[in-house]
Amino acid sequence: MLKRILCVLLCTVFLVVPVVNAEQYPSKVITIVVPFSAGGPTDTLARLLAQTMGTNLKTQMIIENVAGAGGTVAAAKVARSRPDGYTIFFHHIGFATAPSLYRKLPYDTIRDFEPIGF
Prior knowledge:
With 118 residues, the chain is mainly alpha-helical. It has one domain (23-118): D-Maltodextrin-Binding Protein, domain 2, CATH 3.40.190. The protein is 46% helix and 11% strand. It has a three-stranded parallel β-sheet with strand order 2-1-3, with helices on both faces. The longest helix is centred in the first third of the chain and has 20 residues, at 2-21. The radius of gyration is 21 Å and the shape is globular. The chain starts with a helix and ends in a 17-residue tail after the last helix.
């Protein structure tokens, strides 16, 4: 009987502790990186998306405009960021054409990014 009680207690501890320590997403601000200047069509869509996402996720969304080199400067910045879901890259078809336009990119469009929506 004592072995059963100990077994149940140990199982409960091992099953409950990871759930208690698990971080709820999102637990901090989410940054959406837009590879163009503020005020353009891509920026406008990102801001509309951020407003809806922020309301639904109940967190603050920040838009960071990083213009330059047809979006490759911003893409490189996002590729170097932590892959934790708190940095989102908002781009258009130019992202897919960059590998054919530039000889050497500081990132791999397939390996360094994970699509979350179309």
